[in-house]
Request: fold
Amino acid sequence: MPNYVVLYRFTAQGRKNVKESVKRAAEIRKQNEARGFKVLGHYWTQGRYDLVAIVDAPSDESMVAGLFGIAEAGNVSSETLRAYSAEEMQRILAKG
Reply:
């Protein structure tokens, strides 16, 4: 399964409702795991981003669909990074 690092920032709405963020994250995690995602970690952070998630997704398409679902709620904006394991990177480099 493809791996992703998702960097989230609270929107104005998300900051207004920040006390509910742990509950919202648990609900979203449950929904996404039912869709075949594996959440490896979800962290609240200090600095430029407010939350970071490490996720395995069934496909790029399902990852985008999941992110759109989160975005529709309006509490966060996100930046997603496709992450490659050492084994995946070795295969990529062997092709070049």
Summary: The CA atoms of residues 38 and 56 lie 5 Å apart. Helices lie at 12-16, 21-34, 60-73, 86-95. The first strand starts at residue 3 and ends at 10.
